[in-house]
TrEMBL record:
Subcellular location: Endomembrane system
Presence of keyword Membrane: yes
Gene Ontology CC: clathrin adaptor complex; endomembrane system
PANTHER family with a match to the protein in the record: ADAPTOR COMPLEX SUBUNIT BETA FAMILY MEMBER
An individual GO BP term: vesicle-mediated transport
InterPro entries, A to Z: AP_beta, ARM-like, ARM-type_fold, B-adaptin_app_sub_C, Clathrin/coatomer_adapt-like_N, TBP_dom_sf
Organism lineage string: Eukaryota, Metazoa, Chordata, Craniata, Vertebrata
Entry keyword set: Membrane, Protein transport, Transport
Chain segments carrying region Disordered: 569-597
Family: Belongs to the adaptor complexes large subunit family.
Protein name per its UniProtKB record: Adaptor related protein complex 4 subunit beta 1
UniProt keyword Protein transport present: yes
Length: 825
C-alpha cells in the first residue's frame, strides 16, 4: 500500500476490511488486519475501524482472533457501546472445544475493562475456575482479580473466595500461584490471603514445582506466617534449605529474606544462613546481566554490615573489569574498602591506584575517595599514593585528591605534615569549586605550616570578582580570617581588600552578611575573633572506630530483597558538596531528640542538680530547680592510652584498700549502678556515639553488638559550680557493661553519702550487709529493685571527688540510654 496520510490510510483500511473479496480470502483478510495493528502501533488513530474489527473476530482462525482482540482491548474504552457487540462472540468462544480459544476469550473479556460488561463476565469466569484445562483455570483466577480491581468497592463474593482457596491445592503450580496473587488483590483490605499451618506446609512442599517468579511470590507471602513452635520453625527451615542455595538469584534472595524474618530471635541461625548464601551471591556478581551484578553487589554491601569478613577471602572477585559500566565499578570499589585487612591491603591499594587514571572521571574520583577511606587505617601507604597522583597534574584527579586529603586529616591529624608538603603548587591545577573549597579549608587550618599559603590566598583574592561559586567565596572569607590570626603581617592587606569587595561590591547577600559579621567581629578584638574562628582542626575521636562496626541483622533485614539497597549507598561516603569537615556530624535517629529531652546545647550541657543528693532518679535531678549548673566538656582530650592507664590504676587500689583508706590516699570516687535498657546492647555504635557526642560525652571504644560481654568505654570533663564557690572541674571515666545474665536481683547501696567515698551496686546479699552497716550508724539509704533481662551495669570513676557532679552526670547518662532504648523499641 503506498504511503498515505493518516485519514487516507484509515479510509483505505476500512475499504479493504469491507471488501467481500478480501473477506473471502483468509490470508488477505489476516494481512489487512495486521496492517491495522501495525498502523495502531505507529500512533495512527484507527478507532474508526472498531465496527469492522468487531465483525472480524467471528472467525475460526486463532491468529486472526488474537490480532482482533489486541485491537478491541485497546479501543474498548473509547467505544463502550460498540464493545457490547463483541460480548456474544467472546461468550461463545468460552465454550469452544479448543482450550486455547477458551482461555483467549476469557483473558480478553476481562481486559476490556468496562464496568458495564461485568454482569456478562462473571458467569464465564465462574465456569472457568472449574474448567478441565489448566490454561483456562489460570486465566479465570486472574480474571477475578481484574474484575475486583475494576470495581474495588463492590461486595466480595464469599463463594468465589472459597473456590480460590480450594484452587490453592490445584495440581497445576501456575494455578496455585495465580490463586495467591488473586487472593492478595481481592482481600487487600483484610490483610491479604490468610496463611495458616496447612497452607504453609502445602506451599513449601510444592515450592520446587513453580517457576522462578512463582517461587518468589510464594516465599514473599509466607513471610507473614509465624510458626507456633520451635520444632515447626526448624521443619520449615529444613524445607527451605535447598532454596537457600538456589542457582536462581531471585529465589535465593527471597528465601534468605524469609529466613531472616522467621529467625529474627535466632541470631546464630541468621549468621549461618548468611554464610550459606555467600556462594550464590558471588555467582550473581559474575552474571552476564549488568543489572543482576549491580543488585548482587548492593545486597553484598548489606550483608557486610553484619558480617564484615563474609567476603574477605574472595576480594579478588570484586576487582573491576575494563568493559564494566561505571556504576558497577564504583559499587565494587565500595565493597573493596569494606574488605581491607593487613594481608590484602597492598594488593587492594595497587588495584585501586590503577582505577585512579580511569577514562571515566567519576570512576577515577571514586577510586581516590576509596583510597582515602582506607587511609584512615593505613595512612602512610595511602598518602604515598595520593601524593603521587598530584604529580599527574590532571584537573579532576587533583581535585579529588585534595578533597580526600581534607577528609583524611580531619580524622587522622597525624597526616597533616605530609598533606601540607603535598599541597605546594596544586592550586594551579584546581578548576572546580569543590576542589578549591577543600584547598582553602586546608590553608585555613594549616596555614602556619604551609610557607606559600599567603601567596596562594592572594591568587584567590585577586580573582574573586570573576569567581562564580558562592561556596568558594564564603570559604575564602573564612580562610583569610583564620590565616590573618596566625600570620597577620602577610595577610592584613589582603583581608582588607577582600572585606571591602564583599561588603561594598558583592551582590550575594550571604557573602555580604558573612563579610559584615567578620568585620564587626574584628572590632570586638582579636581574642573574641579567635574564640569564634579557631575551632578544632580535626576530630580524632572518629578514628577510634575504623571501618564499619558490625550491626545487628535486624537493622537491615526488612530492606533485604527490596529496592532500598539499590537506592541508597550502603557504605559511608564523603560528600563532595561540603566545604568544611566541621559541618558534617553524626545525626541521631530522626525521632530521637536528646537536646529536647535534656535541654542542652552542643557546646555545653547544663543540668540543675539536687543539693540533697539523696536520690539517683533522672526525673528528680532534671526537675530540680536549685541553681547549681553542671557543664560537660570534651576538652582536654583524653587519649585511649591515658584512659587505659587511669582506668587500670584505680582497679587495684579499689580492690586492695577499703573505702576509708581510699578517701585518705586517693582523691577520687567510684560509682556503680544498674540500668534496665533492653535495646542498648543491640544499638549501633554510630547511634550511641552520636547521642553521646551531642552531650559532650566522648566514647572511646565499643564491643560489637551481640558480643558478650558487651562494653563501652567513655569519658567527659565536668564543671560543677557549688553555691558561693568557683566552678570545680573533674574528670569522669566510665564503662557500660552487659554480661547477658537475666533476671538479676540488683541492689543499689549508696554508702557514705555524706562523705562521698564510694557508691556501689551489690547483689541481694550485699544489700543485707549494707542494712547491717546502716544499723551500726553508717549514714546512707538502701533500695533494692528487681529487673528483668538486659541490665546495663554502669561503672563511673571520678577525679577529683565531687559527689553532686558525679550523680548529675549519671542522671544525664541514664536519660540518654533510656531515650535511645525507647526509640529503638
Amino acid at each position: 500500500m503506498p504511503y498515505l496520510g493518516s485519514e487516507d490510510a484509515v479510509r483505505e483500511l476500512r475499504r479493504a476490511l469491507s471488501n467481500p473479496n478480501v473477506q473471502s480470502d483468509q490470508l488477505r483478510y489476516r494481512n489487512t488486519i495486521l496492517k491495522v495493528i501495525r498502523a495502531m502501533s505507529q500512533g495512527v488513530d484507527v478507532s474508526g475501524l472498531f465496527s469492522e474489527m468487531v465483525k472480524a473476530c467471528a472467525t475460526v482462525d486463532v491468529v486472526q482472533k488474537k490480532l482482533v482482540y489486541v485491537f478491541l482491548c485497546s479501543y474498548a474504552t473509547l467505544n463502550p457501546e460498540l464493545s457490547l457487540l463483541v460480548i456474544n462472540t467472546l461468550r461463545k468462544d468460552c465454550q469452544d472445544p479448543n482450550p486455547m480459544v477458551r482461555s483467549l476469550a476469557l483473558r480478553n473479556m476481562t481486559n476490556l475493562r468496562l464496568p458495564s460488561l461485568v454482569e456478562y463476565v462473571e458467569q464465564p469466569l465462574t465456569a472457568g475456575l472449574k474448567d478441565r484445562a489448566a490454561c483456562v483455570r489460570r486465566v479465570a483466577v486472574l480474571g477475578w482479580a481484574k474484575l475486583h480491581n475494576l470495581q474495588p468497592n463492590s461486595e466480595i463474593d464469599a463463594a468465589v473466595v472459597n473456590e480460590l482457596y480450594t484452587l490453592l491445592r490445584d495440581p497445576d503450580p501456575v494455578v496455585m500461584v495465580n490463586c495467591l496473587r488473586a487472593l492478595e488483590e481481592i482481600l487487600k483490605e483484610e490483610g491479604g490471603v490468610a496463611i495458616n499451618k496447612p497452607i504453609t506446609h502445602h506451599l513449601l512442599k510444592r515450592l520446587k514445582e513453580s517457576d522462578v517468579w512463582g517461587q518468589c511470590e510464594v516465599l514473599r507471602i509466607l513471610q507473614r506466617y509465624r510458626p507456633q513452635s520451635e520444632d515447626e520453625l526448624f521443619d520449615i527451615l529444613s524445607l527451605l534449605d535447598a532454596s537457600l542455595v538456589s542457582p536462581h538469584p531471585p529465589v535465593m534472595a527471597a528465601t534468605l529474606s524469609l529466613f531472616l524474618s522467621l529467625c529474627s530471635g535466632l541470631p546464630a541461625v541468621n549468621l549461618a544462613a548468611l554464610e550459606r548464601v555467600r556462594a550464590p551471591l558471588l555467582a550473581a556478581c559474575g552474571s552476564v546481566s549488568r543489572e543482576m551484578r549491580f543488585t548482587a553487589l548492593c545486597h553484598i554491601q548489606l550483608l557486610l554490615r553484619s558480617l564484615p569478613g563474609l567476603m574477605g577471602a574472595h576480594y579478588k572477585r570484586f576487582f573491576c573489569g575494563y568493559a564494566e559500566p561505571a556504576y558497577i565499578k564504583q559499587r565494587k570499589m565500595q565493597v573493596l574498602v569494606e574488605l581491607v585487612n593487613d594481608e590484602n591491603v597492598a594488593m587492594l591499594l595497587d588495584e585501586l591506584k590503577g582505577y585512579c587514571t580511569d577514562v571515566n572521571a567519576d570512576t577515577a574520583q571514586a577510586a581516590i575517595s576509596a583510597i582515602g577511606r582506607i587511609g584512615r587505617s593505613y595512612s602512610d601507604r595511602c598518602l604515598e599514593i595520593l601524593t603521587g597522583l598530584l604529580g599527574l597534574k590532571q584537573e579532576h584527579i587533583t581535585s579529588a585528591v585534595v578533597q580526600t586529603m581534607r577528609d583524611l586529616v580531619w580524622v587522622c591529624p597525624q597526616c597533616s605534615d605530609t598533606v601540607c608538603l603535598a599541597l605546594e603548587g596544586c592550586e594551579e591545577t584546581l578548576q572546580d569549586s569543590q576542589g578549591r573549597q577543600a584547598l582553602l579549608w586546608l590553608l585555613a587550618v594549616y596555614g602556619e605550616r604551609i610557607s606559600s599559603a599567603p601567596y596562594t590566598l592572594e591568587v584567590f583574592i585577586d580573582g574573586v570578582r570573576s569567581e562564580a561559586s558562592l561556596g568558594v567565596k564564603m570559604e575564602l572569607l573564612t580562610t583569610t580570617m583564620r590565616l590573618f590570626l596566625c600570620r597577620p603581617a602577610e595577610t592584613q592587606d589582603m583581608l582588607g581588600r577582600l572585606l571591602h569587595y564583599c561588603i561594598e561590591e558583592e551582590t550575594d547577600m550571604c557573602v555580604r552578611d558573612q563579610a559584615l559579621l567578620y568585620y564587626r567581629l574584628l572590632h570586638c578584638g582579636i581574642e573574641e575573633t579567635q574564640k569564634v574562628l579557631q575551632g578544632r582542626r580535626s576530630d580524632p575521636s572518629l578514628g577510634v572506630l575504623i571501618g564499619r562496626p558490625a550491626e545487628p541483622i535486624s537493622q537491615w533485614a526488612c530492606s533485604f530483597n527490596t529496592l532500598k539497597p539499590l537506592r541508597q549507598g550502603s557504605v559511608e561516603t564523603e560528600s563532595a558538596s561540603r566545604g568544611s569537615p566541621e559541618h558534617v556530624t553524626f545525626d541521631p535517629k530522626p525521632n530521637t531528640d536528646l537536646s529536647d529531652t535534656l535541654d542542652c546545647s552542643q557546646t555545653e550541657t547544663v543540668l540543675s542538680g539536687s543539693d540533697s543528693g539523696g536520690t539517683d532518679s533522672s526525673a528528680d535531678v532534671l526537675a530540680s530547680s536549685v541553681a547549681a549548673p553542671l557543664s560537660l566538656s570534651l576538652l582536654p582530650t583524653l587519649s585511649p592510652e591515658e584512659f587505659e592507664r587511669l582506668w587500670l590504676q584505680r582497679q587495684p587500689l579499689h580492690a586492695e584498700q577499703g573505702a576509708d583508706k581510699l578517701e585518705e590516699k586517693e582523691d577520687h570516687m567510684c560509682l556503680e549502678e544498674h540500668i534496665q535498657c533492653p535495646a542498648i546492647p543491640h544499638c549501633s555504635p554510630q547511634s550511641l556515639q552520636a547521642a553521646m557526642q551531642l552531650l559532650n560525652i566522648q566514647t572511646l571504644a565499643f564491643t560489637p553488638p551481640h558480643t558478650l560481654p558487651w562494653r563501652v568505654y567513655l569519658y567527659t570533663h565536668t564543671q560543677h559550680a557549688h553555691s558561693g564557690d568557683t566552678p570545680r572541674s573533674t574528670l569522669i571515666v566510665g564503662e557500660l557493661l552487659y554480661t547477658g545474665e537475666a533476671n538479676q536481683r540488683v541492689g543499689v547501696v549508696n554508702k557514705g553519702m555524706d562523705d562521698g567515698d564510694v557508691v556501689e551496686g551489690r547483689e541481694e546479699e550485699q544489700v543485707k550487709q549494707g542494712e547491717e552497716a546502716t544499723a551500726d550508724g553508717l549514714s546512707g539509704s538502701e533500695s533494692v529493685r528487681k529487673y528483668g533481662e538486659k541490665i546495663i551495669k554502669v561503672t563511673l570513676k571520678q577525679q577529683p571527688r565531687d559527689y553532686k557532679a558525679l550523680k548529675g552526670f549519671l542522671s544525664i547518662l541514664k536519660t540518654v540510654l533510656h531515650t535511645l532504648s525507647s526509640e529503638r523499641n
